[in-house]
Design brief:
Blueprint: H1 2-15, H2 18-36, E1 39-50, E2 53-64, H3 65-73, E3 80-82, E4 89-91, E5 99-101, H4 103-113, E6 118-122, E7 126-128
Parallel strand pairs: 1-3
Antiparallel strand pairs: 1-2, 2-6, 4-5, 5-7
Length: about 140
């Protein structure tokens, strides 16, 4: 019994060593960095600005873990800007005053502006409301 108690004391003293925890932390950081270098598929929200109105579009993307993490941490920095003059829309079947954007067109537009990720799909349908213009 005395040997077991002595073993526990020695083990506790070794584990309380600050060098051990520093190396343990370093190994966890290095493991995380190597895991982020792999290719992943994830669902992220990409902000799309049409004129001055922001919409959040849910996309399934494929890319390195670094790029996906960057888009999840700072989504506004990686937004997509579209002019309302370039959008082909159809009237919405669910509500009046709303318009549907083709998911295929939106996927191509997002892919052309966000080149570090492969946009695999866009949640459909994306409904927008055009602001009232003075010439209407």
């Amino acid at each position: 019994m005395h040997k077991f108690t002595l073993y526990l004391k020695v083990t506790a003293r070794r584990l309380s060593n600050p060098v051990f925890f520093m190396l343990l932390g370093l190994s966890l950081i290095l493991w995380y960095v190597t895991k982020l270098s792999h290719s992943y598929t994830a669902n992220i929200n990409i902000p799309v600005r049409i004129d001055s109105v922001y919409y959040s579009v849910r996309c399934q993307v494929e890319g390195s873990g670094y790029q996906i993490l960057l888009h999840k941490i700072a989504p506004r920095k990686n937004g997509v800007f579209i002019s309302s003059d370039n959008i082909a829309v159809t009237p919405s079947t669910t509500a009046s005053g709303l318009y549907d954007i083709s998911p295929f067109w939106l996927q191509n537009t997002i892919s052309s502006q966000i080149t570090d990720l492969k946009i695999k799909s866009v949640a459909a349908p994306v409904e927008i409301e055009f602001p009232k213009r003075s010439d209407d």
